[in-house]
Specification:
By secondary structure, the chain is α/β, with parallel strands linked by helices. The two termini are about 40 Å apart.
Amino acid sequence: MRLGLLTEGGYPYVGGDAGLWCERLVRGLEQHEFDVYALGPGPRGRTGDRRPLPAQVRRVRTAPPWPAEGARYGRPARRRFAECYAELVGAVCTGTGAARRVPGGEVPEASGDLADRFGSALYGLAELAREQGGLTGALRSETAVRALERACRAPRALCTAHEARVPDLLTIAAHLERALRPLSLDWYDDDALGAADLCHATTGGAPALCGLLARHFCGVPLLVTEYTVHLRTHYLTSGPGTAAPAVRAVLAAFHGRLAAEVHRAAELLTAGDTQARRWQERCGADRARIRTVYPGTAVERFAEPGEPELPSDPDTLVWAGPVDPAKDLVTLLHAFAEVRREEPKARLRVVGTPSGTEGAAHLGHCRALAARLFPGGTEGDQPVSFEETGEPDAYAAATVVVLSSRAEGFPAGLVEAMLSGRATVSTDVGAVVEVIGGTGLVVPPGDPTALAEACVALLRDPGRRARLGAAARARALELFTVERNIAAFHGLYLEIVSHYPVRRAAPHEPRPFAAPAETLVPGHRAGPADRALLRGAPAWATDTTQPSVEETR
């Protein structure tokens, strides 16, 4: 089948975790054809920047940094834009349960009514953009700002939206223009996404919006993968202090409406863990259409099954990962101070690079704290070491692997420790318990005493460490490999496309799923329409000379 892969973050031009996942998915499904539609950083004018792609990638299309302005609108087009945009921002700014005027009185505005208004306005803007060649200029216009102001001042608007001032309105309008740029792309015709049998959006937000439009204009089914739910990410990055309250309230409402439309329209959604699945349900997704597909980890660089080789230092705790405040190395250092009182020979290795300026500041604070907690001695004698890079498998040097986070999504580093056959001590955050599944010790976050007691218990019991490590590796090999991840998506592709017959094949080209199943059942007398569908099928499927079940009775 032909797949339209909608990506964001730079694939196939840059790497990162998202790019690596896309790379493995494309290379692992060589029996399919891929058209990659990339949003975000592009080639920057140099085709050599693109990563080598396998033969199954037919083409790569990249969104321009700035969508086309489009032609100057005539009066009818300007009127249509004003109506659709006013309806869109009206649905965004209206609070659920607010009264709506109807002939003869008012009725409460239901959540479903607002979702229908938002969806109708969104597709109305998309149709206008398709006709006019773009919406960028209109979305930046005074008309858009005035419509947004009226929506914020409306009697049924969110209370916080009433507080929006002119700078807030301009900030909101600019954000909506960026979020709605996919409407101005020329990807929604039969020569682009319309030629795909299935669109796979690798995240929510802009890629999922592109999939919505392909579904609206061309009837292409949509699969949305969210290892981190886009709406949750927006909440986490838009906390107090990032913008005015009115800006945060309106933008949160917009992304909530968009997420609800995506989750309503997608044929299937995949979540990376139970936490993401619950967020999708909160956004309005039907539980029956959600599948949990865990991220895959390559196992080649990890030890073969069996008893793992013990580290040279048998009392070593290892923490590895990107350094930032959410990883809570401060609690880990205080816990290790308690471990040293029980096990004086214990050592702690912190392996990781800072994540941004906050990570660098956190690392500096942790170095200073370690110097205060463990004074004296030469650099080589210090029980705590900070390393920016380690071995290819940093966990090979560990007796026990520790995760001390107070916030976590899917703990990929924990999976690597499990594949290394190491016993682990982790905090109960994110999907940790779901991943560990009883093969490691879990303690409350932010509790150095509980963390220390669990580490000491494993350091003193090598038999228990070996049993937990073996069970952890077996669990990781069963659930969290690249091969299992790819096989899961292959099955989902077939499940979706089996309900959407291929309609865009060239003459004399095989058309999988295009023939109704009943045409292959003995006893069914194929008519002209059925025979037309069976062109190009195997001879045994089109042979009408064989007697039917009814004729042989």
